[in-house]
Amino acid sequence: xxxxxxxxxxxxxxxxxxxxxxxxxxxxxxxxxxxxxxxxxxxxxxxxxxxxxxxxxxxxxxxxxxxxxxxxxxxxxxxxxxxxxxxxxxxxxxxxxxxxxxxxxxxxxxxxxxxxxxxxxxxxxxxxxxxxxxxxxxxxxxxxxxxxxxxxxxxxxxxxxxxxxxxxxxxxxxxxxxxxxxxxxxxxxxxxxxxxxxxxxxxxxxxxxxxxxxxxxxxxxxxxxxxxxxxxxxxxxxxxxxxxxxxxxxxxxxxxxxxxxxxxxxxxxxxxxxxxxxxxxxxxxxxxxxxxxxxxxxxxxxxxxxxxxxxxxxxxxxxxxxxxxxxxxxxxxxxxxxxxxxxxxxxxxxxxxxxxxxxxxxxxxxxxxxxxxxxxxxxxxxxxxxxxxxxxxxxxxxxxxxxxxxxxxxxxxxxxxx
Amino acid sequence: xxxxxxxxxxxxxxxxxxxxxxxxxxxxxxxxxxxxxxxxxxxxxxxxxxxxxxxxxxxxxxxxxxxxxxxxxxxxxxxxxxxxxxxxxxxxxxxxxxxxxxxxxxxxxxxxxxxxxxxxxxxxxxxxxxxxxxxxxxxxxxxxxxxxxxxxxxxxxxxxxxxxxxxxxxxxxxxxxxxxxxxxxxxxxxxxxxxxxxxxxxxxxxxxxxxxxxxxxxxxxxxxxxxxxxxxxxxxxxxxxxxxxxxxxxxxxxxxxxxxxxxxxxxxxxxxxxxxxxxxxxxxxxxxxxxxxxxxxxxxxxxxxxxxxx
Lengths: 418, 310
Fold this sequence. Notes:
The structure holds two protein chains of two kinds. By secondary structure, chain A is of the alpha/beta class. Chain A has helices spanning about 5-25, 50-70, 80-95, 135-140, 160-170, 180-190, 205-215, 230-245, 260-265, 280-285, 320-330, 335-340, 365-375, 385-400, 405-415, and strands at about 35, 40-50, 70-80, 100-105, 140, 145, 150-155, 155-160, 270-275, 290-295, 305-315, 375-380.
């Protein structure tokens, strides 16, 4: 071998080695989402968020944790709500999920195998179920095991454009209004290209109507998905008739906008819409009119809505679940929820802190929300709820616009997801 | 890194061209190729082989993976929804590609004479291509939706509402294709425009002297001379339109029903919404095979109509 070829070979090896190093540096920094150095544990906290203001609020909570437990620091990692579940699944499949995970009640069954059951550890961390609203506490259980501690919750509500009601001389909704009141208000408010109501065929927005009109939801008594049961089919038909027969709501479009009905309400095109209290602060912020809040109007079975909310759980890969629960105790503690409530960010899952949410701007929501909470039922959830939700929305557009019959639509979703 | 690289030995200027492969350069070449080759291996070849392997498994993101042989392929081939998705993709390709070529060629021909403000037109026509797809989709949604600009125009002019373009399964695909043509013609227009500029003026003049009219000149001079550009544009547009994803994703999310769900959108939903990576990889391989086949056919067919001026 000549000196020249040796040099060339060295060059090749060096280049390859440099590349290998660079690639290795890109790799993961170890799984488990927790590192300890000099007696201080840093844990990764995965959570969704929708705005920088929200991120600031979560970071503030993370500082609260370190203030209370100086040996603990949280590394807050975030993505949008929809991306969160994709990212979480991808990270979990690589054994790389964070220690503390945001858990939404609808999606708790689908990620239950990622989470540590908390029941035996709660008392040790000073977390007492009695401090929380029972419906959301229960909504974060899967197969009787507590998988997360809630921070916020809420039933779906009716938001209404109070200015439009007054202009049209239509009586403002009360906490005891009925479906007949709702229909006649929607009819009076539909004119001149504007509509009384806005729909979007998500399973979540249909369920309150089904509960109130027919006393049934999308699941059967065994907790299995049963979209073709008589009551639910009738309720969905009623929902579609608002568009096709009564014409009090505009036709819907296929879109990747997550909340098209709410956006049409905010734009002033629809006078009423159904959504959750977590949207209220955004709605108040963006709408150019006075926003009112009422419970779902009462049907033959009363006024009911499913209660959904979110909390924090501990991933199976977390090396120190006890420490993680200490952090969660702070994140869902009275001070943290008081802070979130005062910001209008989350309606507190702790009953004692709920009053703080009704700040002057949200005070008008108090009667409507409290009435809705009183009649709330736990949200229906199945392991593949995400898939059900997606199929329902995708095929529901044709059903709501009258291009496909409601029973056919529900049959096809049931067959694909059941 | 501070390595001194030996200069390549200068060939004696009078030496005849040698076709003897000098050994020893191979390793140095390997060293220099290492960065790009490793990138290719890491980000293309290994994932490609990996996805082939995954397509033989039931591979949920969470939970147990299981070898299932050809089950994923068989399931997809017998799945009526996947048939519809393939049909949608085919419809998109068959309508979009010719429309795109006709529009871009037409506009390129229009601005090919040295007209005033030619550069401005080129720029204007190219703007849709460089604007972000999501922004386009938002604007087009405002045009398409009930109560939107098109609907209002219908109400004023015809006194009746426009079809619900994005909510009606008969119109949704047409709406997606129209937006895609608007977004996509600029690139091919630039290719054609450059191709037209490269045709020697003398050919046109010679044809005129021989008595050829404008149509005849277009048919017998312009088109044959432009055929290499057209071949390139056709291949690239065909491949990218088989892979269409962003337009339906941003505008209709594949709906209503599966009326605008294309193969890559279906792949995305299977992989990242249903978390079934086995099926998603299988769809990827179906698409890969289709694109390979169509591109190979085009290369075979090019002899008949592409004229290389050499």
